[in-house]
Amino acid sequence: MSSTKAPTVMSRRELLTLIGSVAGSAVSYRAMAGMGLVSESTYKGPIKLEGNPRGASVLILGAGIAGMVAAMELRNAGYKVQVLEYNNRAGGRNWSLRGGDSYTELGGFTQKCEFDPGLYLNPGPWRIPYHHHGILDYCRRLGVALEPFVQVNYNAFVHSTEAFGGKPQRYREIQADYHGQIAELLAKATNQKKLDALVSKEDQEMLLASLKSWGALDKDYKYAPGEASSNRRGFQKAPSGGLSARPVYSTDITGMSELLKSQLWASISAGHNYEMQTTLFQPVGGMGRIGEAFGRELASVIQYNAKVVKIRQDSKKVAVTYVDAKSGGEPRTASADYCLCTIPLSVLSQIDINVGAKMQAAINAVPYMSAVKVGLQFKRRFWEQDEHIYGGISYTNLPIRTIGYPNTGYHSGGKGVLLGAYVFGPNAFEFTALPPAERVKKAYEYGAMIHPQYKQEFENGIAVGWHRVPWTLGCAGGWTDETRAQHYDNLCQLDNRILLAGEHASYIPAWQEGAVTSSIDAITRLHQHVVNR
Amino acid sequence: MKSANHVIARTLCAALLLALAGAAQAQADLTSGTIFSKGYGFEEKDGEALYKGICQGCHMPDAKGATGAGTYPALAANPRLAAKQYPLVLVVNGSRAMPGFGHSLSAEQIAAVVNYVRTHFGNAYTDVVTPAEVKVLLPTKPETGE
Ligand SMILES: Cc1cc2nc3c(=O)[nH]c(=O)nc-3n(C[C@H](O)[C@H](O)[C@H](O)COP(=O)(O)OP(=O)(O)OC[C@H]3O[C@@H](n4cnc5c(N)ncnc54)[C@H](O)[C@@H]3O)c2cc1C
Predict the structure, then answer these.
(1) Complex ipTM
(2) Half-sphere exposure of A425 (CA within 13 A, CB side)
């Protein structure tokens, strides 16, 4: 800022312009979000790159979501585009493993997926919230059919080995009992005048009414066996028809002390998070359908099995050296006026690239996190047939952390695939360090503690430890507030002819929307540069 | 808030399931010596357990590393390990894609795993890293960020 004296009256827009020009768009975006002007993805409908690129060419590295968004939009805007991709398929982390697929991780461990036709594991992304407008719009434009992803299933389990003797609890009962007793406690404090200093008399009346409604309290402001609580936590005998119609209210409410000690309250919050609020979606047939659709659209411009090993720019062009990902062999070169690189930083930090010191420091600053997913196939869908769990997620403190039920194919007679483990943190490192077959075995053994049916019904499984994935060396970039402050803007700036995009160049790490919005932001800036040159 | 009958039913049920879970746990532990840590820190203690529980995920069971689109360097017969400070700082702070373990391992654990790697896989360095040497490098601030 040139002047230290702030203007006395400043419009909101002026303020935003000021913040934006001083500190870059990321800060401006956060300021705007703080002021309630934007609250969702920055995606604003199909991008329009107006103006003539006059034959400019762009070489795009990586055919993940970020690279393919850029390839599609730049091609539509009249650029010559070429994409180099290490894998023999499009999508990157947007990926589904299906029966017949084989997957070789680093170290040479190969797994063959033995799932029945139609069944799959999404080793990476599996859910898309309704406000990820960008990735949803590409699904629409590419004709990728969507179906609901169930995040919260009231009849799924929350489980701790340290509580309820290790017996899995229904999400529904734990949440109802927890909310109900918090409400009762607050109502009691209000009625005993303990909140007088905090809440006005007038508000107290409304507070009581709201607690009754929120916590399912009875007329005496108690969370007790009866119609109100049973309508939340379920009945001992549910109402039905005919002579056996009368309901029996449930009475086995878990007391507050036991609930608190169980820690299970920590497992009922996931669905309240912005990123996991209803409605969420999944592509019909597996998340990988998005990458496949992009791949078909871009078939003529993507070169597969191309491992980039060197990126050089000079005053006229960018030249990229690559080798055959399978056989190595003679290095080949591709060149273009500009390069949009979406290679994950875990890999890019090992590639010889001549960018400025600041961008190089940013490329080197981001460690990649650990995550593991295991898919397990069973002879029948016992979770539906025996336990009435249709889609959604059970949470546990066992090393598997998560059991995800298929959100599709309900009541189908055949086999089914569960997400048998979805793990972050230390347990993810420990799972990754095991041979794949051992990971599957562990997922089976721990899962059987929640669903004993595993023992009769298990058939086969497949396990992906993201640190062993040859083309990402990890799940996603692990930024901290400090590294973002120091490096983020430097990572995203155009460095002469080279520009980076991808999940790692976003404030929505580990979501596809981050890849989409980072790519659109990058090509918008690149296009402005090109038409103004 | 519970009726007496239900308390009994639940207790019975819980006892039964506890027995079941106990059996399953025992069964799980029978098949391998795998350690799964409970919280946000690693519970492996000696160098070998730490290597097998964490490092070999990337650097591989034989410590020879691996290459795909990127590379995990070999630790086996690696002359860079000659200066003990080098692996020490890498384990604490991380480097490029490699996460730092300064927040999730103790000084004792870091010393143990560095000493293990420097005396195995074709490495035979005789000078030892002590926990005290690690402590001065450990981050003092708790971890922030997402
Ligand atoms: C376990 C897990 C769970 C997730 N869950 C979700 C979720 O539920 N919802 C959601 O929206 N997102 C989720 N994500 C995040 C999402 O997958 C990513 O944000 C997104 O797919 C990243 O896209 P990208 O284009 O930036 O990178 P990538 O998809 O990684 O694309 C990069 C491409 O570069 C290629 N490449 C790498 N090195 C080279 C080289 N040397 N030469 C040539 N090509 C190379 C790679 O093969 C890859 O195709 C999850 C991710 C993981 C791992």
Answers:
(1) 0.89
(2) 17
